[in-house]
Amino acid sequence: MSDNQKLRVSKIHNGTVIDHIAGGQALNVLAILGIDGTDGEPLSIVMNVPSDRLGTKDIVKIEGRELSEAEVDVLSLIAPAATINIIRDYDVVEKHRVSRPETVVGVLECPNQHCITTENEPIESRFEVLDEGVRCVYCDTIIREDLAAHILAG
Ligand code: CTP
Ligand code: ZN
Predict the structure, then answer these.
(1) Which residue, judged by its Cα, is nearest atom 4 of ligand 1?
(2) Ligand 1 atom 2: residue of nearest CA
(3) Mean residue pLDDT across the chain
(4) Where is the Aspartate carbamoyltransferase regulatory subunit C-terminal domain positioned along the sequence (predicted)?
């Protein structure tokens, strides 16, 4: 395909492009990053376009904001193949893959209703990242699938 055929949304001036998200996961990626568009920053979301590597993929472009590696590593839980591109003055100045963090703090909600993090205590959720899922460090509950369903509302 020519570049023009591939380009569904414009290039961005400055900011972050999250590429190679598995098809259908873009909205979950935004949720896990706590981005909902209400602060007015330009946001482009492309979903379910053909990809050689993934079959179909999603792309998210966030104008005016450079996401840090720590910030984006949580999204490896739902988009392990994602590529983070930092854009300055239209050029890709940094490109890296997401890596699995050891723990995720304040991002997921423990499904155990009796967990101290889900009661009215000012305690942030904290999960240890395992190969087979994530484990609550307070009550040992393991979430094995559909992590996106456990993302805390921003
Ligand atoms: N991009 C953008 N705005 C820019 C520069 C790049 O939106 N000013 C987007 C591109 O459309 C692409 C991603 O950022 O989705 C990565 O750009 P680039 O590295 O140029 O593309 P590829 O070489 O195809 O990337 P990869 O090798 O990671 O597939
Ligand atoms: Zn718990």
Answers:
(1) 11
(2) 11
(3) 92
(4) 104-146
Residues 93 and 120 in one domain: no
Q: pLDDT value at position 69?
A: 83
Question: Residue 5: pLDDT band by 50, 70, 90 thresholds?
Answer: low
Mark whether 133 and 72 lie in a shared domain: no
User: Residue 122 is part of which domain span?
Assistant: 103-150
**Nearest to residue 29, comparing CAs of 43, 50, 15?**
43
CA-CA-CA-CA torsion sign (31, 37, 43, 49): positive
Whether 36 and 83 have beta carbons less than 8 Å apart is answered as no
What integer pLDDT is reported at residue 120 of this predicted model? 79
| Number of domains, the chain | 2
**Cα(78) to centroid of ligand 1, in Å?**
21
Confidence at residue 53, expressed as pLDDT on a 0 to 100 scale? 87
CA 98 to chain centre: 9
Shared domain for 131 and 58, answered yes or no, is no
Distance separating the N- and C-terminal Cα atoms of the chain: 38
Tell me: do 49 and 109 sit in the same domain.
Answer: no
Residues tagged in the binding site annotation: 110, 115, 136, 139
Same domain, residue pair 21 and 61: yes
